[in-house]
Amino acid sequence: MFRFLLRRLALTVPTFLALMFVTFMMIRMVPGDPIEVRRGERGISPERLAELRHEMGLDQPIWKQFVDYVWGLAHGDFGVSIITKNPVLQEFLTLFPATVELSVCALLFAVIIGIPAGVIAASRRGGVYDQSLMGLALTGYSMPIFWWGLILILLVSNTLGWTPVSGRVDLIKYYYPSVTGFMLIDSLLSGEKGAFADAVRHLILPTIVLGTVPLAVIARMTRSSMLEVLEEDYVRTARAKGLAPYRVIGIHALRNALIPVVTVIGLSVGSLLAGAVLTETIFSWPGVGKWLIESIGRRDYPALQGGILLISSIVIVVNLLVDLTYGLINPRIRHAR
Amino acid sequence: MPVDVSLPAITRPTAPPSPLLSFWRSFRENRGAVLGLAVVSIVILVAIFANFLAPHDPFEQYRGFTKLPPIWVDGGSWTYPLGTDALGRDMLSRLMYGSRISLFIGLSVMAVSMVVGVVLGLAAGWFGGVVDVIILRIMDLIMSIPSLVLAILIVAIIGPNLTNTIVAVTVVYLPRYVRLVRASALTELSKDYVTAAKVSGVGPWRLMFVTVLPNCLPPLIVQAALGVSDAILEAAALGFLGLGAQPPTPEWGSMLADSRDLITSHPWVMALPGIAILITVLAINLMGDGLRDALDPRLRKS
Q: Model-level pTM?
């Protein structure tokens, strides 16, 4: 197990190095110099231009810029945003809780509905429930989520008026200090009446939109994994010794069927963050996804570079953890190694 | 000489059904898949014959008839069956021409990914060693960046247009093909028939592309079908963010983005392109599920 851990860790190092190099090079290739963009239509003197370039290190040779960049990273310096002048890491960390909050809620939503749906479908194989649940799951899987978000805003927010259209909480009505960065927790801590309910109302639609695709994937995965497990001998034994069907399915079969599902859940972090870009854009959710899109528009190289590097690192680390957990929850794999 | 007429009927070996026929038989059992195939065929036909089927020019702006509702809403007219957008362009015609763009993107991404994926996957599986490690590391790298973020980044670098959308989406989805081909090539390469082929003096090119590749095809075909729908969704998302095909191209994603402001006043302008995307992608996925069930003998039995 330990050797496997080391090997797996060693494998991520080149990926990480390459990631730094690629993000660095790609950002350099984006047309449109950040200085040109900032100069805008007013124009600046060539001297001031050279000065600005020197300030940002853009007059250095490319390889020097890269070495400086890696050196900075090693010291926790992810650069400074050209637009806001704040350190990129600080900006990222300010916005990241919003994305985490949304992603965690979306994943919970997907798991809480997806797993039971998959179990029901598998236990009623070929029946009406199975067919309609799987039809719904495939529809969810095929959903263009930017459209789905707009449709939900149209129906739930505009027509029914149940939820707000955008943002995380109504800042005009409620004001409380940010303790954890998670609105749900902060609003509870503040003790202000109605603040928590307001935060929940803001969160509902983005959660559904971001959770739809993972929900469909989890439901389909649970079903097929359940079907496989239900064929196993020990399930037949459990049935034969007269256990109640819910015990057979809910305990004996489900525990083993969940192993691949857990992997899928873990590996969906990357796609969740990709979905967050669209979801946050639609709902004006102040997270890292929206920030990245805006950074592209503003040609904010350092922000983009740092943001993509940070997000990808998170995905790499989470995938690594999933791999390791997989060995923990599935002893068969652990022993095979 | 007397002939026993009863015997031949029994002893004549019945020819096994052709692979295509047996495939069709198991595909046909899945009603959803057949429905998907039917819808996909219709979308393909609409895309091919869009210039005959569309009632109007998709770019023509009928200035006097802007934001007309579809026919089933009060005030709709048969001249513009699905209404018109903010500039007075006929929605039905634009949606029909849009199917060309979406299918073109989906099929191009699939074709390029297939070719590149097969070459890289076979190379990784065949050469092993350093080649394998390098190819796999690059694929890992691509997969570690969230798909849409990577696609956005690529488009930001090479510029937003239709071709670059295809390039970006291809890069994003390439790892799936490469890993799939590599994995099945590795499985196949360890089998006896490959050893037999090697012993009988089959050259490496022939071995890879003629002996091994056909046996890797079934999962690849399924991946290709599902890859088309993923590519359509991803391209529409790029279009929605303004990074795909540029206006006035009737691309479904950008049509949706253009009509965001009309969401409360004229919801159908926004709703229709999304429905078109959903139906197309859903139909392809239904078909893909059927393909998988029919091509994977392991699943067929159960």
A: 0.85
Contact criterion met (CB below 8 Å) for B185 and B127: no
The pair of structure tokens assigned to B158 is 């090479």
Minimal Cα distance from B276: which residue of A? A144
pLDDT tens digit string along A230-258?
888 888 888 888 888 888 887 788 888 88
- Which one of A22, A31, A146 has the shortest CB-CB distance to B237? A146
Minimum-distance CB partner of A146 among B32, B256, B289? B256
- Chain A 3-32, CB below 8 Å of chain B: which residues? 14-15, 18-19, 22, 26, 29-31
**ipTM score of the complex?**
0.83
Residue identified by tokens 């494998």 is A11
Nearest to A234, CA basis, from A224, A222, A225, A243 = A243
H-state helical runs in B201-251 = 204-206, 213-240
* C-beta of residue A26 within 8 angstroms of C-beta of residue B157: yes
pLDDT at position B77 is 76
Q: How many residue contacts between A and B have a Cβ separation below 8 Å?
A: 124
The neighbour count for residue A263, using CB atoms within 10 Å, is: 17
Q: What is the pLDDT of residue B236?
A: 92
The DSSP H or E segment spanning A40 is none
Residues B281 and B233: beta-carbon distance below 8 Å: yes
* pLDDT(A219) > 90: yes
Chain A, residues 150-189, CB within 8 A of chain B, namely 150-151, 153-154, 158
The amino acid sitting at A25 is M
What DSSP element (H or E) covers A26? Answer: helix A2-29
Q: Residue A336's pLDDT band (boundaries 50, 70, 90)?
A: very low
Peptide bond into B219 cis (omega under 30): no
**What would the pLDDT profile of A253-288 be if each residue is shown by its tens digit?**
888 888 888 878 877 887 888 888 899 988 888 889
Give the tokens for residue A159. 């027509």
| pLDDT beneath 50: ranges in chain B | 7, 300-302
Average pLDDT, chain A: 81
Q: In DSSP terms, which residues pair with A87 in a beta bridge?
A: A80
Residues 6+ apart with CB under 8 A from A215: A109, A110, A113, A114, A117, A137, A140
Q: In this structure, are residues B229 and B213 in contact, taking their beta carbons and an 8 Å threshold?
A: no
Is there a contact between A270 and B285 if contact means CB atoms under 8 Å apart? no
Q: What is the DSSP letter of A126?
A: T
